[in-house]
Automatic annotation (TrEMBL):
Name this protein carries in UniProt: Aminotransferase
Keywords: Aminotransferase, Pyridoxal phosphate, Transferase
Entry similarity comment: Belongs to the class-IV pyridoxal-phosphate-dependent aminotransferase family.
Organism: Microlunatus phosphovorus (strain ATCC 700054 / DSM 10555 / JCM 9379 / NBRC 101784 / NCIMB 13414 / VKM Ac-1990 / NM-1)
Gene3D superfamilies cross-referenced by the UniProt entry: 3.30.470.10, D-amino Acid Aminotransferase, subunit A, domain 2
Gene Ontology cellular component terms for the protein in this record: cytosol
InterPro entries, alphabetized: Aminotrans_IV, Aminotrans_IV_CS, Aminotransferase-like, BCAT-like_C, BCAT-like_N, Class-IV_PLP-Dep_Aminotrnsfr
Amino acid sequence: MSAPTTPETRPTLIRPARTIWLNGRLYGDGETPAVPVTDHGLVVGDGAFEALKITAAGPFAVQRHLERLSRSAKSLELPPPDHAVVRGAIDAVCAGQDWQFGKVRITYTGGPGPLGSQAAYGPPNLVVIAEPMDPAPAIGTVVTAPWRRNENGALTGVKSTSYAENVRGLAYARSRGAAETIFLNTTGDVCEGTGTNVFCVFGSRVVTPPLAAGCLAGITRELVVEWCDVVEDDFTLAEAAEADEVFLTSSLRDVQAISRWDGIDHAAPGPKTTEIAAHFLARSAELVDP
């Protein structure tokens, strides 16, 4: 096992060029926009976010991401975000860019608030950032987290900025040479990854955990379920170990084959994963905002 990463041993990352929109103003790379230090997204993680891919065709599945942002805001009792404003911000940060692949992040917080868990004073802060990035590898490996997801928690199904648990989970994977960590829920069923949904192939049957298992309603998951023959059903870690194929989905991975889970090898990419990945690629190329 590798030594834990400390601030002194963390690798120096090269920051990509970014375009930032904050509360109606566009900032170029090198400019330093700021939100108040009392912003509730910073103080207590009281906010919601979305991350979506940009291709040469433009940002993908914007409407579905906006609808999920609204659901998250409602769960957090934040004012509903103005979709037209967010769309305008996305257009602004993407304008003039010729990236082959990139990422848009939308962050919507409660705004200024108390230094505690009482409700934010507001008004909310809205930040939209675009940056280029490399596509995810077609094949990855995963490990199982030692911690459980609570399928009945207050933030279950909410894409909240309270993401420290996922930061810990991803660090756990990286320290073990894997690309992603998979969480079980409190009943012992497979739930989700730190930023992914999980699919297992058993013969001709493709299965993904239902939302009741506690997983986030991923946009790519939603589209794969709509476009492909997929069953939503619970399965255990032991059952997953017997799967013929495993793949993950997310907005920035699309469909990613998994070659190893906790040291157990799986066909990667197997025939069913290859079929679903190709179908998703073709449909998403036809429908930029499905």
